[in-house]
Design brief:
Elements (H helix, E strand, L loop, with lengths): L2 H4 L3 E4 L5 H16 L6 H10 L2 H9 L3 E8 L2 E9 L12 E9 L8 H15 L4 E7 L3 H9 L3 E4 L2 E4 L2 E11 L1
Parallel strand pairs: 4-5
Antiparallel strand pairs: 1-2, 2-3, 3-4, 5-8, 6-8, 7-8
Helix pairs in contact: 2-3, 2-4
The chain binds coenzyme A.
The site of coenzyme A has 21 residues, from helix 2, strand 4, helix 5, strand 5 and helix 6.
Length: 177
């Protein structure tokens, strides 16, 4: 794991200057992760809506949302998005926070960026009063399905996720902070 040190990684809060790069990185990671059979309209619509620079800009400005970026040598390699006071029916805790996105660019996965972003996300959430952090993962995302349990998360339920008109099975992972 020497790469972890040679990357010269800096994890920091996102600023408005990051919105364009976060939007494009988000599109790239989303498509790498979910467009496993090619592109279809539901995916195309979702990615263009969810990762427009305007959407990312409004997320950065939201007081209930934290965006962390992992940067090295002037490039963004990943980001984490947390929303505080976001309960889920399978959690039942108004002080819970949701890890809405944890995205690492594919060619930089496996270098410890994911767990470092996750650790910082947990610290951010706790400092904003969160009692626990939860995340949902598409059950077809085998890497993420095994990543969260290794970071101390337990499987708290199996909600469904709606992507445009499609319904997909998810797993909900949760950890006390
Ligand atoms: C899932 C994802 C976030 C994982 O991040 P990653 O950077 O690839 O992976 P890691 O941080 O685990 O890095 C790999 C190594 O870091 C090390 N590591 C992990 N946790 C560690 C810890 N707590 N302490 C020290 N080292 C650790 C391990 O050696 C690990 O390898 P192993 O888990 O195979 O043993 C990333 O693959 C990704 O962005 N995927 C696409 C998008 C996605 O699926 N997001 C999640 C769904 S919301």
């Amino acid at each position: 794991m020497s790469d972890r040190n040679t990357l010269g990684l800096n994890i920091r809060n996102a600023t408005s200057a990051d919105e364009l790069s976060i939007a494009v990185l988000g599109m790239q990671v989303f498509l790498d992760t979910y467009a496993t059979e090619g592109i279809r309209d539901a995916l195309a619509r979702e990615v263009l809506e969810a990762f427009s620079p305007e959407k990312i800009s409004s997320l950065i400005a939201r007081p209930d949302t934290a965006l962390l970026v992992a940067q090295a040598r002037g490039h963004l390699l990943g980001f984490a998005q947390i929303a505080v006071r976001t309960d889920h029916p399978m959690i039942g805790d108004p002080d819970a926070a949701e890890l809405q996105r944890l995205y690492v660019q594919e060619r930089f996965t496996g270098h410890g960026i994911g767990w470092q972003l996750l650790e910082r996300a947990q610290v951010q959430a706790a400092s904003r009063g969160a009692s626990r952090l939860w995340a949902t993962v598409w059950t077809g995302n085998h890497r993420a399905m095994s990543f969260y349990p290794r970071q101390g998360y337990w499987h708290a339920g199996s909600p469904v996720y709606r992507l445009q008109d499609e319904v997909h099975e998810n797993a909900l992972f949760c950890k006390a902070l």
